[in-house]
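Quick entry between incubations.
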Amino acid sequence: MPGVKEYTTPHKPTWCPGCGNFGMWEALKRALSQLDLDFHEYSVVWGIGCHGNGADFLRTQGFHALHGRALPVASALSLTRPDLKVIVEMGDGDGYGLGMGHFVHSLRRNIDMTCIAHNNQIYGLTTGQASPTTEHLMRTVSTPGGVLETPVNPLGLALAQGATFVARGFAGDIPHLTELYKQAIQHKGFALVDVFQPCVTWNKLNTFSWFRERVYKLEDRAHDPTDLQAAFELSLTTFHEMTCTPEECRVPIGIFYRDDESPTYNQDATGAQEPGHRRAEKPRDISDLIASLG
Amino acid sequence: MAQHDPDAVEVCIKIGGPAGFGIKAAGQTLARLFTQAGYETFDLTEYPSLIKGGHNNYHLRVSSEEIFSHVEPVDVLVALDRDSVVLHLDELTEGAAIIYDPGDFDMSEIDGIPETVCSVPIPLKEIVYEAGGIPIMRNTAALGAVLGHIGFPLDYLTGSIEQQFAHKVPEIAEQNIACATVGYEHARDHDCAFPYEMAPREREGDRILVDGNEAAGVAALAAGIGLYCAYPMTPASSLLHFFAKHGEKYGVVVKHTEDEIAAMNMVVGGAFGGTRSMCAASGGGFALMVEAFGLAGVSESAVVVGLFTRPGPATGMPTWTEQSDVRFAIHAAQGEFPRVVLAPGDREDAFHLTWQAFNLADVLQTPVIILGDTYLSDNRQSIPPFDTSSLEIDRGELITEGDVEEYARYRVTDSGVSPRAIPGVKGAEQIVNSYEHDEHGYGSQGEDADVRISQNEKRMRKMELARKLVPGPAYYGPDDADVSILVFGSTKMPVREAMKWLARECVSVNLMQVVTLWPFPAEEVSAFLGRAKRTAIIEGNFTGQLQGLVREHCLLDVDHTLHRYDGRPFSPEQVCRFVKEVLA
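Done. Structure below.
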């Protein structure tokens, strides 16, 4: 089993000191190590944003894709490479803003991959604009009068759209997050882990201490993760008033929902049963097809 | 009659009517039947972008000799509505016939029908009613009437019907055959003379009937494609249907994606995993793909992109043809990166350039565009079966198994090509990156000025390698010609046809088809134009995009140009008129 430290690269993280991405990075390294995944057995695809800079810090055979487009790149990799574990890392602006279309369609496909969302409820790399998950009425450089929109509810969308593994983590609880990652990576089908990871530079509302006062673990409660209705109701508790007290708004973390029975897209797609490069080892015999044209 | 070759037996049949009448399917039955009977065929479908109503037509050219394109005239018009007569009246040749149902409209009310044109009323609906069939079977009765009119044996049609409906209840074939037979007899009984009897003939060699998209599809399958992604858009959609139909049997992942952005990003992901991957769209869809097309360039991804064009901008004229996206293909995406743009001119080209595109993409590790258009994508021609003997797979410097040591995905090399080890190969740690990056792919190192220079130059060096690998221009006609014509893409077809006709009038024309538009073959084009008596460019756009490339890369211009941008392909008649004007 490679040790946790072996999952690093020669490059040291450039995130702001205290950034939530550190906790997510650490948890993923631990999960990969504990799952005993060698460096050629998984591939990570990143979008663009602060989270994406993590591509340089995690040892993998990976792909740093376009802003908002990590999911289609990873979907294709999953469908053409059944021998690889595919993991997507995306941001809230990246995956729930520009890439929202891909997100919704990925959910309904149940392609076998793990989607980790770095949800800091703000645009970090582009210096502090409102993101799709920024709280209603929060002031940012792009919304000086406050955000007038309702935040995206990624977990609710995932549940409504048929995702088969829906979880939320908190970057401030690395052991708990590691466990979520392990279960998501082992899950057969599309696994969403939305992670609250406070942006210490631009989001002065949803801070580590804000979350610490509010998060609670679902496994400590009597939540049944096979109960879709209960999961859906939990997802609605994402929304709160900016001024809410810790007692008023509670933030559940853990596995909201899982369905280990539904078939994956990969299983149902005939072409996806073999690595794609094996299809091109020699020219296909298409003589029957040519003769049938007309 | 329409024929230009005095030794040929040739007839042109047009079926016109509203959308939703099964006109293309009926026409293709005729094409199949004449091809089986030893003739060459070339069809041209015109249809508006709607499902019911409007005006559709299908033109079929049938000839005993080799043909290269469609033609304008019509010898037999099957008019399933009044519009079909009015719209195509001026295409009718002397002695042409109009087959129609007198229950649909009154022919005597239509002005301007020449006396030499013969009306052949056939009670199509009544025939279907008598046979106990359904309305669509009137097409079969009309096809029977066409064969009756030209004196062609009916059994080719009845055989084709039996084959077509073999898997259905026997009544369907029986009713269709009854309709065809009665339609045939009606036309035979009519006193409208057809100048000669069309009879089945012997022909050397087999024929297949294929359109440009089918040609590209079979080539991609032969080349080992493992992933095809697309969003429906005319005229590329039929390639999606082709892969959807055959992908399962041949082990291809075929995905109709949520949009073209996903399609292009998916093929980049597929290529990353080592899979031969392709997407296709028309200009509007390619516009959405452009950012990820650039991603393929900087990440050095081996992808093949079909760009099958129609009149733009924006939604434009969805079902029509145009050649106005040359510059778009060559310049698409921000920044600079190597690419190859191949422009097939006919179905043989579409086949051979498509499998070559996969090899070029792999060897160069960069995107390759196959630039076609509606005229080529949509229309079928009878051609000899594709010769697959030259087809080979060259995946370039690709490592798919085992392990590598001290691996660097973007190692700087003399050729610009870095050995590519796919995920799953031990030791192949890498970040394939949309950011500028160092040799290992690390984006954080890519902003160093020296790293940027070395990676940018490494990529652009592949363009030099591309120049050595890409197919050169194709030449047709005599070296010493009165007029030398430069074209790209499907314009090759009507020009080759026109050259045949002009040669009979002792007008000699030679043709250079620019097969690889990028990298532009400046040396060959300069030599061709340099030794010509008179030069001309024929291209299906307004601004002269090929002409612009000639000016830019050859520092030369041509004497004459012919443009077309009305959504229709050039016809050989138009090319002949142009050449004669040039020489006048």
